[in-house]
Amino acid sequence: MNLGCGPTWKVTMTLVEQQRSTVWLARGGLRPTRQRLALAGLLVGDGMDRHVTAESLYAAVGAAGAKVSLATVYNTLRAFCEAGLLNEVVVDGARSYFDTRLDDHPHFYWEDSHQLTDAPAEDLVIAGLPDAPEGMAVSRVDVVIRLKRA
């Protein structure tokens, strides 16, 4: 199963992929449970950045031979976000993508294929933002550029 960026996933992880996944979970302060390791391995095991939906990750983990429910995938993705390991990018009210790349960068959303990809950050200029309401601070700005065939 291709997760939109990087190779098709295989059933077993190499030692390097396991170590990368374990270190990634530790960076977020998360215990490396079997389910978390399986999902982390698919997300960051090869060191590639990716954008996944819960459904695409669920399909990939099933294809890799791991037994994880869709509810567990959703809950684990939320835990990864809360731990600062992923960013959630909402493209509409019904579709969220989870991004392993944590730096500030814009995205292209390909409306015909429903894929989210990184857009060149060096071409984006944000001249200013409105002041946050009293007692609040801007935590992040998501820029999603929607593309359709001309």
Overall shape: it is: globular
Record field, number of beta strands: 6
How many helices? 4
Structural class: alpha+beta
Overall average pLDDT: 89
Family: Belongs to the Fur family.
Subunit structure: Homodimer.
Subcellular location: Cytoplasm
Protein name: Ferric uptake regulation protein
Keywords:
alpha+beta; 4 helices; 31% helix; cytoplasm; FUR; repressor; iron
Give an overview of the whole structure.
It comes from Cypionkella sinensis. By secondary structure, the chain is α+β, with helices and mostly antiparallel strands. It is 31% helix and 17% strand. The chain is built from 4 helices and 6 strands; from the N terminus they run ααβααβββββ. A hairpin with a 4-residue loop joins strand 4 and strand 5. Mean pLDDT is 89; it is low at 4-11.
Task: Give a quick precis of the structure.
The protein has helices at 15-27, 34-44, 54-63, 70-82; strands spanning 51-52, 87-92, 95-99, 107-110, 115-118, 144-147. It has 150 residues and is α+β, with helices and mostly antiparallel strands.
